[in-house]
From TrEMBL:
Location in or out of the cell: Cytoplasm
Organism field: Streptomyces daliensis
Signal peptide: none
Protein family: Belongs to the PEP-utilizing enzyme family.
Cofactor (UniProt): Mg(2+)
A Gene Ontology cellular-component term: cytoplasm
Binding site for phosphoenolpyruvate: R48, R85, N198, D199, R209
Name of encoding gene: ptsP
Residues of the full protein shown: 241 to 556 of 556
Protein name: Phosphoenolpyruvate-protein phosphotransferase
Keyword Transport on entry: yes
């Protein structure tokens, strides 16, 4: 029955009145590409490159090995967008050779972009490999950094991309509340934002994403999280730039409508969720999504936000 409901809805992501919201896939490597293509992904919104580094905890993979893997993903989306995230090591994604040593709070320590800025040779190698992989391909390459806290971080990343001779758009993930609060400042250095709602929830609610006991606070329907999404999307709009979502939040069809209503410009998710999100989005107008977003933000709890958005979207 669920399958039947999906039939007839194909093609690019859009609301029923034609407001386009590209639906992109989250991939962890070339082996995830066939499912993304099959689901009709319009590109890749989050290429997690950690997989390449996990085989060998002693050192970074060779540039040749990286070029090969990046090229396989880039080639699968000719003319499409591919957003590659540079290595996000540390905390929930530990790597021995980049370990900052004992830290009292690894999630608040040297991780993500901070790790790469401490190991510039690893970042340079990755950026050079990306530049080589994209050579001669028509793909629209975008490269983003995880865990950007502020404009200084964004500038350090953009400078590294320029120094590596990378011809791509450079972006910042919004995973730390400070980056959402000062999104316009971050956008002075980069061309797009991508909201990592998993980490953004973790840092907004001081609730470790790996601790089940605090999972209530990891719920992406939390109105405080929606406020930060809204701030980021508004800032991007004011700067004439894009702001996507690539965290788990994008894979919930109802929440995808709310995110669209908040002004998010693309949604990236595991391939399996794409048909459901596409079908739900196609049933509602942009104005309905905006009303659902306002209703959700007016709520006090995640549960009330979900119910309020559901009521708006089903009642019209
Ligand atoms: C996120 O934090 O929402 C995100 C997309 O990155 P990851 O889950 O890989 O940390
Ligand atoms: Mg993250």
């Amino acid at each position: 029955e669920r399958k039947a409901a999906l039939e007839g809805v194909k093609g690019p992501g859009a609301t029923s009145d034609g407001h386009k919201v590209p639906l992109l896939a989250n991939v962890g490597g070339p082996s995830d590409v066939p499912a993304a293509v099959e689901a009709g992904a319009e590109g890749v919104g989050l290429f997690r490159t950690e997989f390449l580094f996990l085989d060998n905890s002693e050192q970074a993979p060779s540039e040749e090995k990286q070029v090969e893997a990046y090229r396989q993903v880039l080639e699968a989306f000719p003319e499409g967008r591919v957003v590659v995230r540079v290595l996000d090591a540390g905390a929930d994604k530990p790597l021995d050779f980049l370990s900052p040593g004992e830290e009292p709070n690894p999630a608040l320590g040297v991780r993500g972009l901070r790790t790469l800025l401490d190991h510039p040779e690893v970042l340079r190698g990755q950026l050079r490999a990306l530049a080589k992989a994209a050579e001669g391909l028509p793909v629209y390459l975008e490269v983003m950094a995880p865990m950007v806290a502020d404009r200084t971080d964004a500038k350090a990343f953009a400078d590294a991309c320029r120094e590596a001779g990378l011809r791509a758009k450079f972006g910042a993930m919004v995973e730390i509340p400070s980056a959402a609060l000062r999104a316009r400042s971050v956008l002075q250095e980069v061309e797009f934002l991508s909201l990592g709602t998993n980490d953004l929830a973790q840092y907004t609610f001081a609730a470790d994403r790996q601790v089940g006991a605090v999972s209530r606070l990891q719920d992406p329907w939390q109105p405080a999280l929606l406020d930060l999404v809204s701030l980021s999307a508004e800032a991007a709009k004011a700067e004439g730039k894009s702001c996507g979502v690539c965290g788990e939040a994008a894979s919930d069809p109802l929440l995808a409508c709310v995110l669209t209503g908040l002004g998010v410009t693309s949604l990236s998710m595991g391939a399996a969720s794409i048909p459901y999100v596409r079908a739900t989005l196609a049933k509602h107008t942009l104005a309905q999504c905006e009303r659902a977003a306002s209703a959700a933000r007016a709520a006090d709890t995640a549960e009330e936000a979900r119910i309020a958005a559901q009521a708006v979207l089903s009642g019209e």
